[in-house]
Amino acid sequence: MWFKRIFIKLPLSSYLFEHKSILGKALLLLVMLLVIMGGSTGLGCIEGLQPIGWSGGVVADGILFVGSKEGKLVAINIATGTDYGRRQWSESLKMPASGGGLFGCMGPAYGGGCGGAPAGVAIYGTPTVSGDLVYIGGYNGKMYAFNSSSLVMRWVYPRESYLKPIVSGPVIVSDSVYFSTSDGVVYALDAATGDKQWEFQAGDKIWSTPASDGTTVYISSFDNKLYALNAENGAKKWEFETEGSLVSTPLVYNNKVYVGSLNRYLYAVNASDGSQEWKFMGESWFWAKPVAHNNVIYAPSLDGKVYILDAESGGEVADAVDLESSIPSSPVLVDNKVIIASQKGVVYALDTVTNKSRVLADIEEEIYSSLCASDGVIYIHTQDYTVHPVDANTGGKLATISLKISE
Amino acid sequence: MGIGEIWNTIILQPMLNVLIALSHYLFNSFGLTIIVLTIIIRVLMLPLTLKQLHATKAMQELQPKIAEIQKKYGKDKQKLAQAQMKLYKESGISPTGCMVPMLVQLPIWIALYQSIMRALAITPEGLLNLSRYLYSWPVVYSMLPLKSQFLWLDLAVPDRTFILAILVGGSMWVQQKMVTPQTADPQQQAQSRMMLWMMPLMFGFFCLSFPSGLALYWTISNIISIGIQYFVTGWGGLVKVTAGRQTGRDKKYKKRIAQVEEVPSYEADVGADIVAVDSAQEEGVDYEKPGDKRQDRGGGYPERLRAIRRQPKRRKGHHPKRR
Q1: Using an 8 Å Cβ cutoff, are A66 and A399 in contact?
Q2: For a FRET experiment, which of A25, A317, B56, B269 has its CA 20 to 30 Å from that of B141?
Q3: Do you find a cis peptide bond into A158, omega within 30 degrees of 0?
């Protein structure tokens, strides 16, 4: 037949005609399917190679500050819901040390290649406001201080060169700003001028934001260690070693430091001497920073559960709440409720009195950023360049705020 | 379950977890793990690779005859296709003999490439995504994130010393040179020359942009390919063959091809009677009538070539006299 004559000209189909056994045909079809699958999922850029960022927001004096995925610090007057002011970062986005990379797959601070990644500096840390300045770090290895009302840059550190990528957010204690870089260095800068006060070198990468109780800075590192540093001079007070890498930001509460590890344990460490108080094992990594309230620790895990633990003993106070999706974003406390968001975009309210949870809203967008609350409204920065305000009591979704400058 | 999920579950996840677990037993060295896993997978794929190489070689050796047919039936596409199919059939070559083994291997290569890139977890998103693919093996959790230092390399970033780029480009050039068929056709020569230089340059250039872990994998994979290629075809186009400088392997192939050339054209009955008798005796069969069809053993290798290759050495008192 004519179509058979045409068909046998095709290389693979001629193979089918030659090997008429059902098994042979099935095998060939399976192989073709695998090749198509591999081609569709594998030959392109792999998700996660391009830094995109997941900055949370902070509210000060009625203004929401958030690092956008376009690499900009965006200030929004949340009272009116209109843009308060947007300024493009004046610093070069180029990374002199490692350059761009083909296909946008490897550029540490570049976009435009994989999966519509943004062409700007990735921002992971949540901005911090102190006095008239707002501080923010970029994946390009720069820490910036902007005037919080005008967004005019006050200082940048370092002025000329670049540090290793900053995933950490800044923390302000007294007159100093603390942050860390991906090569494992903790920096203390003068908050007003940006002059370096001291630095501390850990054994491996640091992606977490430092935590402080006023006199001590606590920082977790990929080298499995939790460090306690003198906030004044950076001298190491103690170190606590775990069996896994530490990526999550520590929580300081009631003279204890709580930190999650990639070996699936949450550790409670005595803040004075660095001795272990207890440890609790989840089913996956503890990635997000936990929340403490009424002597109870609410610890979200990438296994999709929020573990409710006694802050003193580490015992489970109530059954873990299952959100059915991993939880990379840090929760926030609003009145007596812990507001938690799953990666899939469902926002839950966990009542700290009854330890029962309910669905507050479904954002329907992926959530990685830390949650931010102000005046009973939760601000959620999602991966679609949008801030979703949600009423913490009713779960009502308010008008979304686009962070795309082009719009 | 989407197509991506099926891919992840049956191919990517097992390979990724094995890769991470293996690094535990290889002194926590991810570089060493990439090398060892590449070798393991290449060894497991060896039968398919050999099949592919044999088939490719056979196809190359058949090219003069195909050119003849093309010349003969240049305008009549249908007759041309029929004649080609007939030639393939008579020679025992499957036109897809080199394609199918390659297709089978392709998903494995893609999965290995993906596993290396994902295990490196260069960005925060990369590490976070990695958690979705992990089995609940304690060894996997305790290993992450993997240490990316290996020799002078940070496997998570491109190698700026150009050493890996040169190694990848060089090894790829050698491999390409080995497989490039020697042809008198100037158009084909130009095409071959372009491929010979373009691929190594392209991949060498990639090395300056992709993580050096991937470049390490390319280098090892290329070196293994060169080794396998050598055992199948010798140095091929790499060594300029002159009458005085033929290697033993080259001589063997030349001889074999010459034996094929002696056999009547593709339209004649392809019997290889002498061999058939020998082979039959070798296998313990009393006799085999001339014209009896022999079972094709597959492999895409021409029956005539295979038969000649399999011809046993003549030993005293063993080989039957021909009358």
Answers
A1: no
A2: A317
A3: yes
Cβ pair A300, A309 in contact under 8 A: no
The answer to whether A239 and A207 are in contact (CB under 8 A) is no
pLDDT of A187 reads 97
Mutation target vs B (from A12, A13, A18, A21; most B CBs, 10 A cutoff): A18
Q: ipTM exceeding 0.90?
A: no
B200, amino acid identity: P
Phi (first) and psi of residue A383, to 5 degrees? -75, -5
CA gap A342, A363 in Å, rounded: 10
CA dist A136 and A154 (Å) reads 12
Whether A6 and chain B come into contact, CB under 8 Å, resolves to no
β-sheet bridge partners, residue B203: none
A42, A43, A103, A220, B34 from B113: Cα distances, Å: 8, 9, 16, 31, 10
Give per-residue pLDDT as tens, A318-348.
Answer: 999 999 899 999 999 999 999 999 999 999 9
Percent of chain B with pLDDT over 70: 67
The SS3 assignment for A9 reads coil
Query: Which residues on adjacent β-strands are paired with residue A186?
Result: A180, A200
Two tokens, residue B31:
């570089």
Give the Cα separation of A272 and A228 in Å (integer): 9
Residue with tokens 């992606």, as numbered in its chain: A207
Burial classification of residue A1, based on how many CB atoms lie within 10 Å of its CB (0-12 exposed, 13-18 middle, 19 or more buried): exposed
CB atoms within 10 A of CB B165: 24
B103 and A32 Cβ atoms separated by less than 8 Å: yes
Residue B187, pLDDT above cutoff 80: no
Nearest CA to CA, how far is A341 from chain B (Å)? 16
Residue A99 has pLDDT above 80, yes or no: no
A187: left (phi over 0), alpha (psi -120 to 50) or beta: beta
Which amino acid is it at B170? G
The closest alpha carbon to B131, from A343, A216, A24, A18, belongs to A343
Q: At what angle do helices B99-120 and B30-44 cross, to 10 degrees?
A: 160
pLDDT exceeds cutoff 70 at A164: yes
Q: State yes or no: pLDDT of B284 exceeds 70.
A: no
Tell me the nearest-neighbour CA distance from B286 into chain A, angstroms.
30
Interatomic CA distance for residues A166 and A144, integer angstroms: 11
d(CA A44, CA A115): 9
Residue B49's closest CA among B151, B179, B163, B144?
B179
User: Phi, psi (5° rounding) for residue A94?
Assistant: -75, 145
Mean per-residue pLDDT, A27-36 = 57
Q: pLDDT tens across B62-82, in order?
A: 777 777 777 777 777 788 888
Q: How far A375 CA lies from chain B's nearest CA (Å)?
A: 31
CB contact under 8 A, A31 and B107: yes
Strand order in the sheet with A153-157: A128-130, A133-138, A142-147, A153-157
Tokens of B115: 């596993």
Q: State whether residue A262 sits within 8 Å of chain B by CB.
A: yes
Q: Distance (Å, rounded) from C-alpha B42 to C-alpha B36?
A: 10
pLDDT at A298 over 70: yes
> Torsion over CA of A111, A114, A116 and A117, rounded to 10 degrees?
-40
Residues whose CB is less than 8 angstroms from the CB of residue B266 and which lie 6 or more positions away in sequence, other chains included:
B65, B69, B86, B87, B90, B91
